[in-house]
Amino acid sequence: MTPTATTAPPTVPAALEVHDVHKWYGTHRVLDGIDLTVRPGEVTVVIGPSGSGKSTLLRVINHLEKPDIGQVSVGGELIGVRRVGGRLKELGERAVLAQRGRIGFVFQNFNLFPHLTALDNVAAAPVATGRLGRPEARELARELLTRVGLGDRTGAYPRTLSGGQQQRVAIARALALRPGIILFDEPTSALDPELVGEVLSVIKDLATSGTTLVIVTHEIGFAREIADRIVFIDGGRIVEQGPPAEVLDNPRHERTRDFLARVL
Ligand code: ADP
Ligand code: MG
């Protein structure tokens, strides 16, 4: 959440660039020409009705799904599919793994390893990718768990933790690879209402400390508080985007107004 993010000089590469991304499932068009640029340190909140393509967009950014057309670049490296002289050409297949290592992903349902402690859930990826030795990874995991308020639960298994605690472990795990950007897909929608606040407060802490975030959420009040930019998606298209004061308080499009009237 940096006020200067949108005025960063153009020489600084975007943290994330999504260019003209299209995605079909069979004949069903799910993403219909998405363009999105996220500057380092920027907090982007994506809102939109169920089925509008928000999760698919995050999955394309993380290369869990391939766009049928379009490109995604993370930290300046391009991959995707581009039209070259009327033909579709695949770009940078080998960069996929490298890019994934630069992206953290926090899922709605935590997706922790059930057989590993909180500490080992967080330490696993840096060890598996060879970035850190085991002692260093465990030390880092301890630091990150403390940062998300779980310094006293490092030895706990996921099933003994509340949903809010599990999601905070998942956030620590995402941080462990020191990603350039973290994607959140409805991080609080699987939680009991009384546990939502503790997770939002950890995300807010990341936002104010300059981490680049893309967050899909229905928590509009939270979005207003932390977003540099709100992106409203409907029918696989970005209908409008801008600062919260514009998109949430003064939407220009009928579809945005309808959506907000339903969720607010
Ligand atoms: P949102 O996250 O905004 O609710 P999604 O990106 O999950 O929307 O889904 C967008 C549309 O794509 C929905 O109509 C959904 O049913 C469809 N869809 C999502 N994933 C698949 C899939 N793997 N196969 C077929 N259709 C899918
Ligand atoms: Mg979704």
Structure description:
It contains nine helices and eleven strands. The chain has 264 residues and is α/β, with parallel strands linked by helices. The radius of gyration is 18 Å and the shape is globular. The mean pLDDT is 91. Bound molecules: adenosine-5'-diphosphate (ADP) and magnesium ion (MG). Adenosine-5'-diphosphate (ADP) is lined by residues 25, 30, 48, 50-56.
**How many helices in DSSP terms?**
9
Q: Percentage of helical residues?
A: 25-40%
Q: What fraction of residues sit in β-strands?
A: 25-35%
Query: SS-based structural class?
Result: alpha/beta
Query: What order do the SSEs take from the amino end to the carboxyl end, as H and E?
Result: EEEHEEEHEHHHEHEHEEHH
Strand order of the largest sheet: 7-8-9-3-10-11
Cα(first) to Cα(last) distance is 23 Å
Bound ligands, each once: adenosine-5'-diphosphate, magnesium ion
Topology, number of strands:
11
Radius of gyration: 18 Å
Largest sheet: 6 strands, mixed
Shape: globular
Q: What number is the mean pLDDT?
A: 91
Low-confidence stretches: none
Structure summary:
The protein is α/β, with parallel strands linked by helices and 264 residues long. The chain has helices spanning 54-61, 95-100, 118-128, 134-147, 163-175, 193-208, 220-226, 244-247, 254-263; strands at residues 16-25, 28-38, 43-47, 69-74, 77-84, 87-91, 103-106, 181-185, 213-216, 229-234, 237-242. It has a domain at 111-178.
Attribute tags:
34% helix, binds adenosine-5'-diphosphate, 264 residues, binds magnesium ion, alpha/beta
Helix-strand layout with pairing:
Layout lengths: L15 E10 L2 E11 L4 E5 L6 H8 L7 E6 L2 E8 L2 E5 L3 H6 L2 E4 L11 H11 L5 H14 L15 H13 L5 E5 L7 H16 L4 E4 L3 H7 L2 E6 L2 E6 L1 H4 L6 H10 L1
Helix pairs in contact: 3-4, 3-5, 4-5, 5-6
